[in-house]
Amino acid sequence: MAITLKYSIDTRTKLKSGKYQLRLRIIFNRSDSFIPTGFHLTKEEWDQKKEIVRSTSTTMTNTTRFNNKLAQDKAELMDKIVGLESAGKLHGLRAVDIKELVYAKPSETYTVLSFIDMEMQSLIEEGRVGTARTLRDLKNKLIKFHGSKIALHFADINYSFLRNLEKTHLAAGSNRGSLGVYMRTLRAIFNKAIKHGIVKEELYPFKQYTIRKSEPFRRALQEDDLKKIIGANLKKGSALSKARDFYLASIYLRGVNWMDMALMKVSNIEGDFERINYKRHKTGKPFSVKIIPQVKQILENLNGGLNYEDDQYLFPILKPEDDGNRIPLKIENRRRKLNKTLKELAGQLEIKTFTIYSARHTWATLSKRKGIPTAGIQEGLGHATEQQTQTYLDSFGNDVLDKYNDMVFGDL
Question: pLDDT by residue (tens digit) across 149-161?
Fold first, then answer.
């Protein structure tokens, strides 16, 4: 078992008192999670190498007793983890899962919504804000369907519950695509709760209920709409102009994800703004994308030139002071604000509403229509399978298929 427990102060978030939170870090299976101790110290009071409070500390009146308590707490936590390993409960888990297992409440105190809240907090802690948002949407869906006054327990969710949820969703005019997202997310929650010993396996309702597949929702913009966006006469420096620049930059950089675009820094630039090298936040997969003239112009527009300071963010999405564990949330909030502006832009141009996420689908569909093979689009998006890429690709219209048919039989 390769697991490490280590105390440290969180220097990313400084309190007004000049102190930092003291946390215990769990490192396991190339992942980590943090347990707050409830104590705060200055940098001068903490000895990181020895993981103790210095005897000169003015915060702790008895540093020897406090350091002994820290060592005892760490030893007790390690004993619990060893016990979990002996019971075979650590296989395939992450550090955050271990924290949840060790500090889990008694099973009977969990409701479906409280367990979702716990999972959302863990995801936010890991910086996986997008997945946390999906859980938030599921929670709101369950509250709307079941109500908030009566507690919803895992035992309440059976085949009949799922079928009624499905009927209510479809009767409201919603599609099967969004229903599938809710159901798959709820299934994942059930599996997680079973894994943590919170729910008995015989209560699992998805053995009887089948999540039906549906045609994926096509998010890509048509080429004519994209031309309207590019050619729109917008006031330079306005919110609409900046929103357009962010959207086009995402397309020009092979459908780069908003999170990855926000985290790009000058250090990601190769040569004289020739390429951008980065790792996908979601998967860790490395990318190297050529900077075409349009991207260079956008960077000049957004930053007032290309005179960047060392370690500056490439796109003005994050600010220099935005440093710390709340960065994913700030990126998410700015994404929502951007999408609101893009909706305004769509209304002004009289085209269908679109979001920054559609840039990824638009790049894929444009590439397909220009004759780029699916394997090339798959590599460009960083997908593991062609099936995954197909969900990004729009269907060909009859006019395109007619032309293809003419090409096949024209010379016969």
Answer: 788 889 899 999 9
Q: Is 409 exposed, middle or buried (0-12, 13-18, 19+ CB in 10 A)?
A: exposed
pTM of the model: 0.59
d(CA 206, CA 186): 10
Q: How many domains does the chain have?
A: 3
What residues pair up with 276 in beta bridges, in sequence order? 269, 289
Please provide residue 106's backbone torsions phi and psi, each rounded to the nearest 5 degrees: -55, 145
The sign of the dihedral angle between the CA atoms of 150, 151, 156, 159 is positive
Query: Are residues 241 and 128 located together in one domain of the fold?
Result: no
Please say whether the beta carbons of 51 and 6 come within 8 A.
yes
Same domain membership, residue 303 and residue 340: yes
The Cα–Cα gap between 250 and 258 comes to: 7
Pick the closest to residue 196 from 122, 115, 77 (CA basis): 115
The answer to whether position 404 is within a domain reads no
Q: What is the rounded distance in angstroms from the CA atom of residue 338 to the CA atom of residue 242?
A: 9
Q: Do 312 and 263 belong to one domain? A: yes
Contacts of 301 (CB under 8 A, 6+ apart): 236, 241, 245
Write the pLDDT tens digit of every residue in 160-204.
999 999 999 989 888 888 899 999 999 999 998 888 778 888 889
Distance CA 345, CA 258 (A): 18
